Amino acid sequence: MKTQHTVPVSKNEKHIVTIEDLTHEGMGVAKIKGYPIFIDNALPGEKIEVKIHKTGKSFGYGKAMKFLTSSKDRVEIKDEHLGKVGISPLQHLSYSKQLSFKQDQVKNVMQRIAKMPEVPVKQTLGMKNPWGYRNKAQVPVRKQNEKLVTGFFRKNSHDVIPMENFYIQDPKIDEAILTVRNIMRTYSVKPYNEQQHTGNLRHIMVRRGYHTGEIMIVLVTRTAKLFPTSKIIPDILEALPEVKSIVQNVNPKHTNVILGEENIVLHGEDKIVDTIFDNQFEISSKSFYQVNPQQTEVLYQKVLDYAALTGNETVIDLYAGIGTISLTMAKHAKHVYAVEIIEDAVKNAKANATLNNIDNVTFELGTAEEWLPQLAENGIKADVLVVDPPRKGLEKELVEAIIDIAPKKVVYVSCNPATLARDLALLAEGGYDVKEIQPVDMFPQTHHVESVTLLEKR
Ligand SMILES: C[S@@+](CC[C@H](N)C(=O)[O-])C[C@H]1O[C@@H](n2cnc3c(N)ncnc32)[C@H](O)[C@@H]1O
């Protein structure tokens, strides 16, 4: 017979605990009679009075009520609002410890999931100034006290906390959000009401080219009707001369997904331009573009270092986005074949090849898993294959197709260590040696871990 374990704590109880570890999301972990409690804003070694606020079968959640001791790695947070929203969950941990936390996350999955503890995981490459780095913001718009406000969601809720300084975003983006917010107030634009699914303006999205200063504003609305645009647009342009593109995105669905299908261009075109190394890139509102421009060059340099191209290689770039990696590599390779699933991104990628006078790249619209086997059928062989998938990692059939096409090197750019480790184990089974992993901090103050891995065919 199975023994029934009882949960040793109840809701609202207070306990004194010592934090033993951090979860991969950066929450402190304490144990009461072996039962884990996850506690926000708590660091290893700290002795805390915790109030239990949720219990499940195998773990619970608590709130730190009083700190009896404080970790030497704790740093003062910049703003109390920042602690309430989820945009910078590691902000209370010193930056050097954030970097080692990220390196440890990768080591941990290489041991636990990939079963390859011997693979070298280098120290995380961090930023000199790990604040104000984001080149893109998407802020919710709501009504509070009869006023249109912009801010961010309170953790685990859909209440918006009004904020003016987001700290991790380019300060020029924060400024642009406030300017647009004020203009919207002037014309009494109706903010979205999520519960009732009424009102109109849902989100303001701002993207800014780090090197060019060009700004794109996306006004996400519930309906296609929008205010007195003939007044709003000139006002935005006058107040923000860096704005090159204003797009209305219509999202009529009752959903957490921010962008809808329909775009209406209100000013300029649905694009801005930025540069990475010496290439120019046009970026549209729906295309993926790395959010940390300074670290993007560090990341891509690592991809180039691992690929070690001499000019004679055929390269395949899967999950190519607007072609940033493909075009960076094309200058050092014979030919690059690239695939991407989002149509607008592929259009950008092709235009970007032209913009930079690069003609040794072929961009295709499609899914990596369907396109790679076709490429192999057409007799294309690759020396180097780069993958940069979303968080869910590679489809199993894609791993099989990579093993079949047998490139000498695979360079795996990952934003999720758990799926990376799973995929590396499969590639290792298929005849690849995992040589080295380099974490790169693309998301300071958050728990997100980006890395580049070099694999070589045995
Ligand atoms: C993490 S981004 C990387 C983009 C690009 N390499 C870069 O550095 O900017 C992943 C990209 O994969 C695309 N994508 C998602 N699923 C895909 C699939 N099954 N096949 C091809 N591309 C896909 C996304 O649209 C996105 O542009």
From TrEMBL:
Keywords: Methyltransferase, S-adenosyl-L-methionine, Transferase. GO terms for biological process: rRNA base methylation. It comes from the Bacteria. GO terms for molecular function: rRNA (uridine-C5-)-methyltransferase activity. Coiled coil: none annotated. InterPro entries: MeTrfase_TrmA_AS, MeTrfase_TrmA_CS, NA-bd_OB-fold, SAM-dependent_MTases_sf, TRAM_dom, U5_MeTrfase_fam. Residues 8-66 form the TRAM domain. S-adenosyl-L-methionine binds at residues 290, 319, 340, 388. The keyword Repeat does not apply. The active site is at 415 (nucleophile), 415. Gene3D superfamilies: 2.40.50.1070, Nucleic acid-binding proteins, Vaccinia Virus protein VP39. Belongs to the class I-like SAM-binding methyltransferase superfamily. RNA M5U methyltransferase family. This is 23S rRNA m(5)U-1939 methyltransferase. It comes from Isobaculum melis.
